[in-house]
Amino acid sequence: MILRTLESARLTLVSATAALLEADLAGHAQLAEQIGARVPDNWPPDLYERSAIQLALRLLQDSAQQGWSLWYLLTRSPGEAEVLGLCGFKGRPDDEGKVEIAYSILSQFRNRGYAAEAVSRLVLWAFSHQKVRAVTAETLPHLRQSIAVLEKNGFTHTGPGSEQGVVRYAVQRPDGH
Fold it and tell me: CA 116 to CA 90: how far, in whole Å?
């Protein structure tokens, strides 16, 4: 199986496929074998329990969704690669050219800049598609680390989110087109 990947300074981002998501649902050993990296015992990260993986799998029944779904985050260290989190989009761009990004890092990898690095790389990837005009994200106002990830990537607060108590952030396409 050929995997679509993106590289950043410290990460390899692997675009989810139906086979990867099925392996993830089947267990750590199956995911490790499919993705070619060690999967920590506390996998998956917060917010990406089984139901979120199943939803992503349903979305990927449409092959045009690949890339606009989850991306597995792997370390690029000289030793064995390790899966440290997930980042990705909640589907293809809407009619206004907006995509929503989300992310979560396993607890032992937090506070090292990995989420900000992954978001940066995926925002660049999204803006490489002409249709994308803005990348949005929603979070809770008390999640200061999540907001810091967004602000490091040029996102600004744009108002309330889609659910009670949630706030929305966005970054516009740099060239204004």
Answer: 18
In order along its 177 residues, the chain shows pLDDT tens digits of 567 999 999 999 999 999 999 999 999 999 999 999 999 999 999 989 898 999 999 989 888 888 999 999 999 876 789 999 999 999 999 999 999 999 999 999 999 999 999 999 999 999 999 999 999 999 999 999 999 999 999 999 999 999 999 999 999 998 755
Cα(135)–Cα(34) distance, integer angstroms: 30
Which of 97, 89, 73, 63 is closest to 177 using CA atoms?
A: 97
Q: How many CA atoms lie within 13 A of 49 on its CB side?
A: 2
Which residue, 133, 166, 128, 134, is CA-closest to 147? 166
Q: In 10 A of CB 46, how many CB atoms?
A: 13
CATH topology classification for 5-172: Aminopeptidase (3.40.630)
Domain boundaries, the chain: 5-172
* Two structure tokens written together for 48: 């990406």
- Buried residues in 80-103 as b, exposed as e (16+ CB within 10 A): ebbbbbbbbbbebbeeebbbbbbb
